[in-house]
UniProtKB/TrEMBL annotation:
It comes from Reinekea marinisedimentorum. Residues 1-33 form the signal peptide. PANTHER family: OUTER MEMBRANE LIPOPROTEIN, OUTER MEMBRANE LIPOPROTEIN-RELATED. Gene3D superfamilies: Type VI secretion system, lipoprotein SciN. This is Type VI secretion system protein VasD. It comes from the Bacteria.
Length: 158
């Protein structure tokens, strides 16, 4: 097999492209992207009026404590309850009809994202969810969809 100028040029272009790609991957910050959509009938009272709902996002090393916790204990004492498994926390008041993308910086130790919505009507079981997030050197961004309806939330991967 002969090495020609064409082969060398092709290999150099490929190698350069690979180096640039790896450099860009290394420079990007790990993140959690959540496409949030709240329906207009959100967190309704007995008259059917819609209200904003408080939503918390927990970056966790392990989901076990979060999954066993009650919404009231998370509302009142989340940090002491979750302890060392909690490595990051964000909260947001979500208005009826809101559609937005949240871009949260991912803490290195994060392995799971826990989400809880504190609705007026706490009877539904679908008000808390957990998703495993990407980890490792090249797995930088986890993309999720969060749908909030009348009194439930649904967290899915994009």
């Amino acid at each position: 097999m002969f090495v020609t100028g064409k082969n060398i040029s092709r290999r150099l272009k490929f190698g350069s492209s690979l180096c640039v790609l790896l450099f860009l991957l290394g420079c990007s910050s790990p993140s959690l992207k959540v496409q949030l959509e709240a329906q207009s009938q959100l967190n309704q009272d007995v008259q059917g009026d819609s209200y904003s709902v408080l939503v918390r996002f927990y970056q966790l090393t392990d989901p076990a404590i979060f999954e066993k916790a009650s919404k009231s204990s998370l509302f009142n004492e989340d940090e002491s309850l979750l302890g060392v498994t909690l490595v990051g926390k964000e909260e947001l008041m979500v208005s009826p009809g809101l559609a937005t993308e949240l871009n949260m910086p991912k803490v290195d130790e994060t392995r799971y994202l826990g989400v809880v919505a504190f609705y007026r009507d706490a009877s539904s079981k679908n008000q808390m969810a957990v998703a495993k997030v990407k980890s490792g050197k090249l797995a930088k961004t986890t993309k999720l969809d969060l749908l909030l309806n009348k009194n439930e939330l649904f967290l899915t991967y994009q």
